[in-house]
Design goal:
This protein has 133 residues and is an alpha/beta fold. The protein has helices spanning 16-27, 83-93; strands spanning 9-13, 30-33, 39-43, 49-54, 74-78, 96-99, 109-113, 119-124. A hairpin with a 5-residue loop joins strand 3 (39-43) and strand 4 (49-54).
Length: 133
């Protein structure tokens, strides 16, 4: 039996309320916050959990540029036919495109940063192979 029940990605940022709202909207989730806490949790519709911790000295990573090492990034799976709509929605929420000229087709990936500068990617969701019997 595992001692750990779940992992949570925690992103440091200067404004956790704003970043939590960005991801709450993206994940169609709910915000869980304790009054006076420096940490805000978001629980997505599909059970994904992320946390945002206040760090007034937080500096965004420069990835994918090689200037600094990558601190962390998120991958979100989306249907290939929804990539353009997801991109419009992300930019409307405040995301910034980092690289959207990747390979087209079933392996397409697009890179963005959230409003606080944390990088993330959208990938085409792998479609399950059709049943053959």
């Amino acid at each position: 039996m595992s001692l750990v029940r779940a992992g949570v990605l925690v992103l440091d940022c200067a404004e956790p309320e704003e970043l939590a709202e960005f991801y709450r909207t993206l994940l169609d989730g709910e915000i869980e916050a304790s009054p006076g806490s420096n940490r805000i949790d978001v629980v997505g519709e599909q059970g994904m959990r992320m946390s945002f911790r206040r760090d007034l000295n937080a500096a965004p990573p420069s990835w994918p540029r090689p200037d600094d090492s990558q601190q962390a990034h998120l991958d979100f799976l989306v249907a290939q036919e929804d990539l353009d709509e997801v991109e419009r929605r992300l930019i409307g929420l405040g995301a910034r495109p980092l690289e959207t000229r990747g390979a087209r087709g079933p392996n397409e990936m697009r890179l963005y940063s959230d409003p606080a500068g944390h990088p993330f990617a959208t990938h085409c969701a792998k479609q399950p192979a059709p049943k053959t019997a």
